[in-house]
Amino acid sequence: MSLAAIHEDDAADRRHVPVMVEEVCGLLSAHGPRAFVDVTVGTGGHAEAMLRATRARMLGLDRDGAALGFARERLAQFGDRVVLERADFGEVAATMKHHGFEGADAMLADLGMSSYALDDPQRGFSFRLDGPLDMRMDDRQAIRARDIVNEESAEELARIIYTYGEERASRRIARMIVEARRRSPIETTGELRAIVERALGAHRRGGAHPATRTFQALRIAVNHELESLAALLRDGPAMLNPGGRMLVISYHSLEDRPVKERFRELVRGGDYTAIARKVIKPSSSETSRNSRARSARIRCIERSAR
Prior knowledge:
This protein is of the alpha/beta class. It contains 13 helices and 7 strands. The longest helix is centred in the last third of the chain and has 17 residues, at about 255-270. The radius of gyration is 20 Å and the shape is globular.
């Protein structure tokens, strides 16, 4: 299925455009899977392509209730082949067992942020759009980015920004945040963006906005993304059927590094095989159409059939 065939109609502005659809479907549909698990189903782009390309029954997980609502609408055409559950991808093993999926022939994790969530100022993910400083993927949880920014110590803020954003100027940014919140609470993405710009300047070499790393760090901290990824990498491979494949799309080194290391560990153990020796990147034609695909990286393993 080509990217051009992905829905871009009345809901185009609210649906995430999935990256490397041809590559994902080619790798995961190679053995005619009967059970497919999409642990980050989002609004259903990859799932729709896989359901069209195979006869598989699918289980889709996502923490984002709004995204899951769009996926439910989008995938209704496939009837009882589709089961959707609001759950964190770190809970994949328990969720599969709950829905009677004893094993998966294909498992997909797209770790990228949904475009419709990024582009919704009320979600608070983007420094480009002014809105409440929220950043929760699951709005049922209590802690928001606002709570971290206004309540954590300067030392903890610096640790979060450095560890999850790989931001060398984390201490300077943390000090500026603490100074600003003494005057009044920091409530919006625009306010936080302005603080980071005062700390680092409005421009940075390489083209990335100076607030990029700080916003990434807060989002990861709010949603415990790396803890969820660790759980997925621990439990997901064991849920594959013999000959089953697990594919992960990552977008930055904090995601890609643990995926690479875990997959290498599994391959060295002898029960899994790497499907492609090198990481798979999007084509230049795709990145020209979808700039958010630029940093996407695919890694894929297969469980031995023996």
